[in-house]
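Structure in, sequence out. Go:
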């Protein structure tokens, strides 16, 4: 639970730092919402309820829940935005260097 609380504090700080960027806010809100759902289960039940079961042929995907899905999608969006930001910063720096 301590790690979850620290994660919430970090997400809150990051959200505040990037509050002017809609994509970052959405990604962080998805991560925080999913983490809050899992945290609520841990506090209430001492474990997280996983209720989605996906079978593909003979392969069974590990059980998960909607909160896990939101955390994963939010993290993927956040990673994509951070990669795009670094690429744009590198391109901007390169264009500044070539214009001098």
């Amino acid at each position: 639970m301590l790690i979850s609380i620290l994660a919430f504090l970090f997400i809150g700080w990051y959200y505040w730092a990037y509050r002017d960027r809609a994509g970052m806010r959405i990604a962080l809100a998805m991560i925080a919402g999913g983490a809050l759902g899992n945290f609520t289960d841990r506090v209430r039940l001492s474990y997280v309820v996983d209720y989605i079961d996906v079978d593909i042929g003979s392969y069974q995907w590990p059980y998960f829940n909607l909160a896990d899905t939101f955390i994963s999608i939010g993290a993927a969006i956040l990673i994509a935005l951070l990669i795009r930001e670094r690429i744009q910063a590198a391109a901007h720096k390169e264009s500044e260097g070539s214009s001098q």
